[in-house]
Amino acid sequence: MTTPAIEFKEVTKTYRRRFAGLEVPALTHVSFEVGAGEVCAFLGPNGAGKTTSINILMGFLYADWGQINVLGYEPGDVRAKQKIGFVPENFAFYKHLNAEKLLRFHLALAGGDMGRSIGIIRDLLFKVQLTGYEKLKIGKYSRGMVQRLGIAQALLSDPQLLVLDEPTSGLDPTGRKEVKDLIHAMKNEGKTIFLSSHILSEVEQICDRAIIISKGRLVRTGTLNELLGVGDQVEVLADQLPAEMEPLLAEWGATVERGAHGVRITVAISHKRELVEKLWAASCDVMSLVPVRSSLEDLYMKLIGPPGVPV
Amino acid sequence: MKIWKIALNTFGGFLRDRLLIVFAVLFACTVLLMMTPLLGAKAIAKAGSASQAEIMVLGMVSAIMFFVSGTGSLLAAWCAASSVAGEMKTGTILAVMARPVKRWEFLLGKYLGVMLLMSIYVIMMFGLSWLLAWIGGEKIHSATWVLLAYPMVRYALYSATAMALVTVLHPVVTMGITMIIAVAALIVAPTGQAITGNVKYLKIPLWVLLPSTSLLSEERFLAITQASLKPISWLEHITTLSYGLDYALVLLLVAMWVFHYQSLTRD
Fold it and tell me: What range defines the domain where residue B154 resides?
């Protein structure tokens, strides 16, 4: 078995206000693993402990308890950081620099080849669609441009692990798609990606695994197939439904929806074959048959609940 | 390489810092205003003897340089405190520390950035002292290196003090404590008179504990005429400067140690 890219074991962190005597538990015995080459979504409502976990993972914060391994090293270890690209939740920048100077500064810190810096920076700016803005002060960038620049700096050292804290926040739909495509490309290159996001529909499209936390506790973790199931129902789209079949469908507990494009029948997977055969026997055209699985959003709502509703 | 990059970036940030630019303009205006009494002193001294004129003008130069030099100490402390706290407040530290940079390397880089700024300040201060003496028709008799090395070591000490404090305190509180330390160090500095009464139980430990910045003051060499310029041996110079550098090094190491265990985010 290969070493996981990220390993959290019983990680606990409490924020303490020394003078006010306040203690706020941020993480309570959180354990999870992210395998090498996986794209893992880190989900949870605001204040669930996502950013705290990421800060611990990156070595910005120390956990009070537990064991953390990143690429086989302790968090904050320079050897691990050489292989990590990180995009913070709100990428902050030096106001006195432009994109080119900022990337050159980060490349120097990453120990990159400064002789090839011009080419590397040009390629990256092209990748995040900031070509032509390299000389513009970052202070004049829009939020989306800053976010894209943050992604560019994370990719500077060709990282093995990408840690993205809300990478699509502040981006318009086009920007989001670009980031999603970038993540896909990184995934195809075999990189491990750990990202926190609130946009569940996007996450579902790109992730292999999801970790859901709430109030500092792990709620659920697993691959998307494990979490959402492979589906115990199928959805059949037929051009018509003979009236004599309706009592049988009612007996099977199927749901029937009639629309402009045909009849949508959702039935238990055990009746799939029988239903299709009956439809064909009645000269109906079966246009599609797809397994039904709950969405990540459904699962999230079930586990966490809508905002403001305690679970 | 990494440390130097952080230092240069810090220095570049200072040069474009609006607050520092406003400070520089106000400061330049204040120094220009202070030149008025210098010119007045020169006019009055013309009526008296040459030696009286020398003492008066050098005294005036010393007074202006006391202000400039003291402001430099505050500037060194403020820059050191704000450069670290500012990075944590804005969050720029996160992207930097996500790179293969150790915490002590980051702090040392910030410190060297402050020292780069202060070296420019010291060179300008040196130029100003010569300009003032020239306006007054006098010449500064002290060696150049003394007027450069002593303030530099003093600023190194103030920067390290602020850096050590800001790792655990708010920058404004850090500034306040640094100023209190500076004033207290001046108060407890030996005056040549014997300390009597219970005061000695407070003064002597404080004198040992606090950084003796009056020893590191270049004004010791500015306010005196050539006739009264006390020859100071190399050993004395080396001992005094080593004391300042050692103090700064200890504080910087304390800052690095504390910073190693600090959270880099505002929790």
Answer: 2-260
A167, A172, A174, A177: CA torsion to nearest 10: 30
What is the spatial distance between Cα A56 and Cα A65, in angstroms, rounded to a whole number? 11
- For residues B231 and B233, give the distance between their C-alpha atoms in angstroms, rounded to a whole number: 6
Number of domains in chain B: 1
Give the model's confidence band at A310: pLDDT under 50 very low, under 70 low, under 90 confident, else very high: very low
Residue among A86, A90, A95 minimizing CB distance to B98: A86
Q: A61–B2: do the CB atoms touch at under 8 Å? A: no
**Tokens 């041996």 -> residue:** B233
Strands (DSSP E) contained in B26-164 are none
pLDDT at position B152 over 80: yes
Tell me, yes or no, whether B267 lies in a domain.
Answer: no
| Residue B3: φ, ψ to 5° | -60, -45
**pLDDT tens sequence across B213-262:** 666 666 666 655 555 556 777 888 888 888 889 989 999 999 999 999 88
Question: How many Å from the N-terminal Cα to the C-terminal Cα in chain B?
Answer: 31
A233-238/A262-268 β-pairing: antiparallel
Q: Let me know: does A42 contact A53? Beta carbons within 8 Å.
A: yes
Query: Are the C-beta atoms of residues A90 and A158 closer than 8 Å to each other?
Result: no
pLDDT of residue A70: 94
CA distance A64 to chain B (A): 12
Is the residue at B115 inside a domain? Answer: yes
Which amino acid is it at A294? S
Distance of alpha carbon B152 from alpha carbon B213, whole angstroms? 11
Question: What pLDDT, on a 0 to 100 scale, did the predictor assign at position B222?
Answer: 61
- CA–CA min distance A310, chain B (Å): 24
Residue B153 is assigned to a structural domain of this protein: yes
CA distance B263 to chain A (A): 5
Closest CA to B243 of B218, B204, B213: B213
Instruction: Tell me if chain A has a CB within 8 Å of the CB of B266.
Output: no
In a domain, B24, yes or no: yes
- CB neighbours of residue B267 within 10 Å: 13
Q: Shortest CA distance to A285 belongs to which of A247, A236, A244?
A: A236
**Angle at CA of residue A125, ends A119 and A131, nearest 5°:** 100
Q: Token digits for B97?
A: 């520390």
With cut-offs at 50, 70 and 90, classify the pLDDT of residue B34: confident
